[in-house]
Amino acid sequence: MLFYLALSISGSALPANEHDFIEGLLQHMTLEEKVDQLNQLGVQDTPTGPVIDQGELAQLPMSTVGSVLGAYGFEQTRRLQEQVVMRSRLHIPLLFAFDVIHGFRTVFPVPLAEAAAWDPALAQRTARAAAVEATASGVHWTFAPMVDIARDPRWGRVVEGSGEDPFLGAALASAKVQGFHGAGPPDPSFMLATAKHFVTYGAAEGGRDYNVADVSERTLREVYLPPFQAAVAAGVDGIMPSFNELAGVPLHSNTALLTGVLRNQWRFGGLIVSDFNAIWELSQHGIARGPADRARLAFNAGVDIDMASQTYRQHLPALVRNGEVPLTAVDDAVRRVLQAKQRLGLFEDPYRYSDEARQRANVLTPQHRALAREAAQKSIVLLKNTDALLPLPKHLRNVLVVGSLATDAEATIGPWALAGHPEESITVLQGIRRAVAADTEVVYLPGASPVSKEAENLNTVRQAARLAEVVVAVLGEQADQSGEARSRADLGLPGAQEALLRALLDTGKPVVILLMNGRPLVLSPTVRQAPALLETWFLGSEMGNAVADILFGDVNPSGKLPITFPRSEGQIPLYYAHKNTGRPPSGDGRYASAYIDEHWTPLYPFGFGLSYTSFSYSTPRLSAQRLASTQSLDVTVTVTNTGARSGEEIVQLYLRDDVASVTRPVRQLRGFRKVHLAPGEARDLTFTLDQGDFALLDSDFSPVVEAGTFTVFVGADSTTENHARFEVTDSRALSISGQSVPSQGSN
Ligand code: GLC
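Structure for beta-glucosidase, as requested:
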């Protein structure tokens, strides 16, 4: 209504429809007002990037801004919105953007942990709950999901993504976009979503954040692009380019990928928003000759919105006036921003997301806490359980809990939990204390922290351990040892935690290790001595309760690793979908692709996770031994719970193209299904494979199905040898665009 007011002031006729409304608005805007819409101001209190001394720019009038990063809460967003709507000439409302990565006030497991649940429906539910809380708190737009494939755990941001595999990553990317959207506009819990960081950010050389990525065209198309394509197919509203360069071209000035792939190939019609100050950093990359050149390079490559650097505001108008930037391109970018605001209903009511009653009613609700507990339970991975030490009985004379992480509330919510309140989360120690029987004594000693140089009072720790029936050692990383700009060259237990663990093991008492970490760690021989090992990541607001639910057996662990755990840093990058090479590492003799000082296999492979029960698999049964490329194939296995308690098993299907015109990975995930089975229960599971699964990109990157034999594996993790073979009888070019990744969720 505000804009209609503006139009009536200007004497123009009211627009007939939404399209005319936007076009009418555009016609009334000066060039500077248009560029203001492409300017995003970082007003966050908790910086998510280098604090830039903006000098006079820090006093920017809000009316010269199209969107704001980091403001939230009905009061702050209402106040900022009023400044713009009431003081600007055309009263165009602001967009409020925030990093809603794994929850909002209710914090869910970090994305890498949630990926261990292999549960797109769960990911959609937690994204939905996060959107309900964030939009009730004034947020219109999240910079999530982060969909970067990562195969190098030295890179700290592996915590923010879904691990190493494009098929699992694409399924989760799609689910999260749908979760953020919900029913869609005009529902006020609809939140704009952004897939980031486009693209190959996780391939940073040396695992060093922001470093160059130098992957082949094939790896780009087969590994790094698919989750973004899935997000675009799911209707994601924004794409954020990554800080890195790819093969000499920074993503923020990469016309081939931003315009060539995103706009022209994939027909992406949403917003391309820079990362924090990344346009300014084109000078650091050494490709911009001065400030105006930064703006020219980024805008002409396809970046619509400048986050935090103010480069567009300072230089785009002059570039348009001197013909270096087409006004039509600026109009197109501004149109996309205005359309986003229109979809959110902000022209009708700029304050509809800044609603005190809605915020108070929807944040940190019991339902969201219950969902956080469920998601945390499903994200925990049982890595080792010698002699069925776990689950522990709740009736014990004495349990010793050791490790500073057991009481570290910041660590429970992990990195990128900007709106979370650590004091509202349940720590591991709190969860254990709540779970045990009233007459069970729980003794706690910090012992060591991930940042301590020395372990504390090891004699006291040894004495306490000798008095305990069982020791629970909570070891791993602090929240700020994973995440952005948190690369590590040494992936062992940081600080003096190893010394603490050796002291505990020396007592001979049974030690259960709970790992709290945001990335695969290199687990030393000392760690491997412990009889029981649970991967508990950073699980969010309900961490302590969920850990106790698993530790004491109220819930049977079902998580499976979404990323490989190497034996040593020297193996990195190490991932399951590797190539066979001409001298396979599995070969014998000295001339094999292996190490002379370390076994080439991972410590724990992709897809691995144990249960308190056990499962058996029949050999896969195929609907055909030979089929045409146009036909589909049913693969059926019988999964049986062979243990004494019910449990959930994540059944995984992998496919290998045995011989092709280009080399193929030894196997690729092409289906997964979670099944709940009672003791002794058997269930037939059928996966259907089709051309999308058989396809590859040939040497010209054209999608084809090639005649020949395939091996299909079905089992409990990526090392299963439970397989069957079939043959596709003809070759055929496919019309699917982009790359050969099959449609997600087909299995
Ligand atoms: C950060 C991150 C990005 C985030 C942005 C805004 O530097 O790279 O993921 O969305 O800045 O906080």
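The pocket of alpha-D-glucopyranose is lined by residues 48-49, 69, 99, 143, 196, 275-276, 484 (CB under 6 Å).
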